[in-house]
User: What shape does this take?
Amino acid sequence: MSDLYSFTLAELEAFLQPQTASVIEARQYAGAIWRSLYRDHATNLDQVETLPSQLKLHLKAALRIFPPRQVATELSADRSTRKDLLELADGARIETVLLRYRDRYTVCASTQVGCACGCRFCSTGQMGFQRQLTAGEIIAQIEHFQRALATQGNNVSNVVFMGMGEPLLNIEPTLRAVHTLLDPRGPAFAPSRVTLSTVGIVPGIKKLAELHRRWPIKLAVSLHAATDVLRDRLMPINATYPLSSLFEAIREYTHQTQRHVFLEWVMIEGVNDTVEQAEALAAWIRQTPAHVNLIQLNPAGDFAGRPSSPEAVEAFAAELDRFGIAHTMRQRRGAGINAGCGQLRAAQMPAHDSHG
Ligand code: SF4
Assistant: This one.
């Protein structure tokens, strides 16, 4: 049984052709299914009204829509952040977050079950890697929240791949999901409303630069340290892609795409919030079109680090200002609801599985 969310529109047309009288008819039915899926947010082929019953029967035997089952949910006190624990068809569990800012709704989607990167400050990293998500399972997370918002007359406006997992270590399904998200006949997200966040998988960044013309989405790099000694400590991936190769890839990306990148920096007290780190960061990016997002740490699992003090954040930001580096202090979202990635899943798991 194939997952309908994993199909591109062209693939669905090709799939329907043997069952229909002509290419035009196949295109017409594929369009009807597509509209039901992504405009009406259908979860069952019976909801596609314009399909002949014989074709519907055939499709129901071969295709399925797999809406994930919501196992748990948490809502922040100010109701701006909702985190859902979702169970997939095989029982694997992932987290997806909905962030509201004014009238904008952003889905933070997962791309893997668990993660192999092992970033020290991350709950998912402490859990280990379980499996890759399919493109359909990535799309299903966005549709999960589309359905919830549609009941209030709202829509998902932005998608960020910043949930569980490293998207560039699951690049084909992630890009396939991007392809569907940007399809003007489907979910029709503007490319500027889709952001992929990576810990710095150099070959993946180069691939995104090559594909930018086709899929001009935004790129964010989780940096968090500007010296190899510190980054090695916080992010084991730095041993494979040290800062020199990462910044070379970032420079190549900005040159090729003529876009700036976002550099994410989680502020950890006494660890990476020092003036020396700010200076080292400035030295790397002075000539690069980049915007630094400073984010307070959401303490996670076994990690002993604490969020930086307001004074340290201010001093760090002042140092970036001194070098003329654009930055934003991003609001810490979801504190108190296990909103750091992987935290809700870990909280729902028996102890032996939460580090699995
Ligand atoms: S921060 Fe992202 S890349 Fe790092 S361990 Fe967590 S999920 Fe993986």
Notes: The first helix runs from residue 9 to 16. DSSP finds twelve helices and 14 strands in the chain.
